[in-house]
Hints:
Elements: H1 2-6, H2 9-32, H3 41-57, H4 64-80, H5 85-100
Helix pairs in contact: 2-3, 2-4, 3-5, 4-5
Amino acid sequence: MLLKWFNAHEAVEVGNALADQFIPQTASAPAKGPKTAKPGREDAVLREFLQRIDRDARPLQLNIYKRAKLANTFKWKLLQNGVEPVLVDELTRMLLLRLATP
Length: 102
């Protein structure tokens, strides 16, 4: 039972998947610049991100250790792929808040 509590393999996979889904959309945004971005595009990306959290991560009913592993995996993957640290921090906060709400 105790070993199952520490098995965070699924959480790490979901964290990587969330980051992979988000990376291509943010990596192309700086190249286009803010003037050429479509209005509402950011809202659609954010809405899709939150829906993906609800669909993939929340059903796992993660304990605090697994939530931390998921958030850490998500955060570091984004940072390693060149996403702005301020944006990464905000997205990670959003992820954790979404997981904490019932």
